[in-house]
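User: Structure please.
Assistant: Input sequence and predicted structure:
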Amino acid sequence: MNTVAKVGMTLNYVIDSSCAKYRDTPAIGMAMEKPLSYGDFHERIIALASRLLREGVKKGDHIGLLAENSHNWGIAYLAIVRLGAIAVPILPDLPESDVHHILGEMQVKTLFTTQKQIEKIYELRTVMTCPVITLDDYAAEIGVIPVITISNYLHDAITVLRENPEPPVFPEVAEDDLASILYTSGTSGYSKAVMLSHKNLTANAYAASGLKAIEPGSVWLSILPMSHTYEFTCGFILPLLCGCRIAYAGKTPTPAILQKLCEYEKPFAIFAVPLVLEKIYKKRVMPQIEKSPVLGLLCKLGLTRRLIYRKIGAKLCAFFGGNLQLMGVGGAALNPEVEQFLSEAQFPYLVGYGMTESAPLIAGGPAGDRAITVGSTGKPIPGVQVKIAAPDPETGIGEITVSGPNVMRGYYNDAEATRAVLTDDGWLSTGDLGVFDKGGNLHVRGRSKNVIVLASGENVYPEAIEHKINTFPWVVESLVLENNGQVEAWIYPDYEFIDEQTSGGSRIDRRAHIEGLLDSMRVELNEQLPKSSRLAKVFERREPFIKTATHKIKRFLYSGTAMVG
């Protein structure tokens, strides 16, 4: 390796530096279990990389990661990039057909997986001739595909490493070398394979480290998939960069499980999608206020509302273990009503905005900036430039474009798609619409493809209407669409809430109650909306919408088609 300038922005340099500085400090592990120290973590990375190298993995090879979160996932990823090989993280929730497409296109040389995922590759056994290593130590009793457990694989690798007095020699890895190829789980069509370099990821983590003071040794509870850049950069590389300890939930973070984990771990930071906070707000905060007429009345007055919200905010912090100082919210838009509550409750949240193609953060924070307005995503992060392209002369709204060291190299094997979003001088077209306020805060208005343009020429932003719909306590989620020149909404109700309200009634009573809720909501909303945005019809949908890994509805599945309730 020639110069620090060349390697200083590689993931390898970041991990080596942290592991040397915090060697005996706890680094990573499953929640409520003993973690690995930074020293042990580093030894396992080097040992695994050495074995992969001995077994023929070369710089530039594609290595698959199809697994749930764990410290072993992190070890595998960092061993892959140590060699200059390219990690291909695959979202665990992807269906079998998508997994087959990715593995077929990537031609991976090794695959790390788990028992929950392995059935997705059984039908690929004719092409899956590469080694398959199980990160959860799953040893298949019926050997459809031969597997190696990570414990055995690592044990042998560590033994060889310790017995050899000479440190292993790895290929030179530079900051502009590819680290990952990530398949997006977008809302607007087929997945694209995003190529991210070492520098894309480390630059974003370094920039994020300046948004909030972070103490070494603080605990970060991880509940989102590491195979998504949001959690990878902000919930994995960032805490490791700062000498923190990562604890993996290991289970679906229902409120009950989350409360138990937080009570034990007392996390400093959690990164979450808005759905987590919105559920807590609707299920735990609003019922407290609505069941008391006096409290409901007091919450309509500014001063008393803020005092009440602060007391509820203190209880929320206690729910998250009593030590929470950073709740990162991203991956989708946060409901404005929920954010207004969090702000007045003085809950320690930060809204971030980004996308896989920007590794991912574009804007967010910084913490403590009183000029950040509710409803915005804060300022562009350090080192990242944001411009609004072709702004509307009246509203200032235009497409958000981005330039910086975090912007992707392009889409794998797709020059046409790359040219469509990336200029020769490195500006990325996000496909999102936004506007800056006078304080320099970025407000995201939604996807440009989602904007409904009526025959009158007026623009309707469906996400803004959906936020209003989703504040109703009996609504789980909604989708606003255009149909024959009219704006319509589909609602997936909270059937548990409705069951409580119609307890003892007949099925006919229940149907009539739901119809009444839909109709009264349409009337109430239309009084709040501009004439052009008013809802012509509101329909019940009887099953959840299909969503991405960060719980955004896949709109392209529903646009232009009649939906069955």
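The longest helix spans residues 507-528.
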